[in-house]
UniProtKB/TrEMBL annotation, chains A, B:
Keyword terms, alphabetized: Transferase
Pfam short name (any one): Acetyltransf_1
Gene Ontology molecular function terms on file: acyltransferase activity, transferring groups other than amino-acyl groups
Entry annotated with the keyword Membrane: no
High-level lineage: Bacteria, Bacillati, Actinomycetota, Actinomycetes, Kitasatosporales
Domain N-acetyltransferase: start-end pairs: 3-164
Source taxon at top rank: Bacteria
Name used for this protein in its record: GNAT family N-acetyltransferase
Length: 164, 164
């Protein structure tokens, strides 16, 4: 699948929300309130600069994934970026997440960030953990029982980090 | 020094801001922008519920420190609290930080939180690290070069955690 990454615009939101909604409602991989409404989700994801939101588009022009990145800390730690990713479940496993991850690493480096920190990677989200490790992210620690999974109960929450 | 901890009110702000300002301007221990203005600082520290802000008051009624605590994550990780502390440098070393820490641990436990996570403890802030360890917090990881200290350059940034 040929994937293009481009900056998100307001007109992309209607294509993003359906798969984002499914991910949020499932409550298995993200630390968002499961009943987050569309307006809250939009204002969480489509942030003003210095945040940066992109979409992944397939050859037909369909939006198949999205990423946002923003400073993880302020002040003396503002050189650490954060990033979040969502891929349409119907298109998973076709390199969309990897393309978004590679893009964000390059973007953050070009912006002058010195590292990317993921604050909350659910340990049962093994596909994501494997992908981030393959892109050079390290599990720095796992918060024990840090996440309450709707099916598995309390599971670990990884903090992952990659220097740029 | 006899210390009382009580919920902060708007009328406490003028007593909090002078020592908070000094700590923020120094830029050695907190990941705030060093030029944060008073309004930004106030809205960062005096948050609506479920956040909770307290002040430490000495026997004369003077405000000598403050703490705020709030959920560290949302959704499936909302059982992890965050907490931040500031003590008037002129009153440091007299148990104010410890009294605030003990209060916050009890408060978070009573609120139903299952853990407290500190996201960013600067490794050169050895007095704070020692205090948190003595109160049962563990250094889960240290982000290498996670903090740019105005004097020491890039130093590590601890993530500390205590189960309740």
């Amino acid at each position: 699948m040929s994937i293009t990454i481009r900056t998100a615009t307001d007109s992309d939101w209607p294509a993003v929300w359906p798969f984002m909604r499914d991910i949020i409602r499932a409550g298995e991989t993200y630390t968002y309130d499961r009943d987050l409404d569309e307006g809250q989700a939009r204002s969480t994801w489509f942030l003003p600069p210095p945040a940066h939101t992109v979409v992944a588009v397939d050859a037909s022009g369909a939006v198949v994934g999205t990423a946002k990145t923003n400073p993880n800390h302020m002040g003396g730690a503002s050189h650490i970026a954060s990033a979040s990713f969502m891929v349409d479940a119907a298109r998973a496993g076709r390199g969309v997440g990897r393309a978004l991850g590679e893009y964000v690493i390059e973007w953050a480096r070009a912006e002058g960030y010195r590292a990317i920190q993921f604050n909350a990677v659910v340990e049962t989200n093994t596909r994501a953990v494997r992908l981030w490790r393959s892109l050079g992210f390290e599990i720095m620690t796992t918060l024990p029982e840090g996440f309450r999974h709707p099916e598995h109960g309390y599971v670990g929450l990884h903090i992952m980090y990659r220097r740029l």
